[in-house]
Amino acid sequence: MFEVVTYSVGGFDCYSLLYRPLSRVPFISWHNPKYCCPRCAGVQWKPASGVKVKLYDVDRTDMDDLMDEGVSDSEGRFELKGHETEFTTIDPKVNIYHDCNDENVPCLKKVAIVIPDTYVTEGEVPRKTFDAGKLNLAGTFSGESRIALIKKTDRS
């Protein structure tokens, strides 16, 4: 959005074209639970509760911006939303940190899910919801990594 601003300096009128960055908002919702594997649960298909999730705006030139974070509920569900003021559209992703099928390894698995641009809206109030559906965390994901920065005992 462009805005023309007029101001006076010593009797001369000056015009300035200002570019005001737009605030861009993604709203991420997991209405269907994430599931852990039977081996983790000791029973068949337990919801993955207590899983750390973080919503980022991916930046190419500096560190990614953390927009929101949370923990999945007892049914494996979570909702995240956030906004960033940028000159261009934001590139949101959700990182999921878990230890499904991996309880005895000290580091958590990290899975990143890129949110499509069609779910990014202008303003600070989200107008669209990205529902990622069910996700079985027992599998291996492309680009999956491990992270030791989050202790398994410190997920809140």
Quick recap of the structure?
The protein is built from one helix and 14 strands. With 156 residues, it is mainly beta.
- Under CATH, the topology can be stated as Immunoglobulin-like
- What percent of residues are in strands? over 45%
Count the domains. 1
Q: Would you identify the CATH architecture? A: Sandwich
Describe this structure in words.
Keywords: Secreted, Signal. Pfam families: TTR-52. It is found in: Secreted. The protein is mainly beta and 156 residues long. The chain has a single domain, classed as Immunoglobulin-like (Sandwich). It has one helix and 14 strands. The model is unreliable at 1-23 (pLDDT under 50).
Q: What characteristics describe this protein?
A:
156 residues, mainly beta, Immunoglobulin-like, 5-stranded mixed β-sheet, 5-stranded antiparallel β-sheet, 1 helix, 46% strand, globular, disordered N terminus
Give the topology, please.
Elements: E1 2-9, E2 12-19, E3 22-30, E4 34-35, H1 38-41, E5 52-57, E6 65-71, E7 78-81, E8 84-86, E9 92-98, E10 108-114, E11 120-122, E12 130-131, E13 135-136, E14 145-147
Parallel strand pairs: 3-12, 4-13
Antiparallel strand pairs: 1-2, 3-7, 3-8, 3-11, 5-6, 5-9, 9-10, 10-14
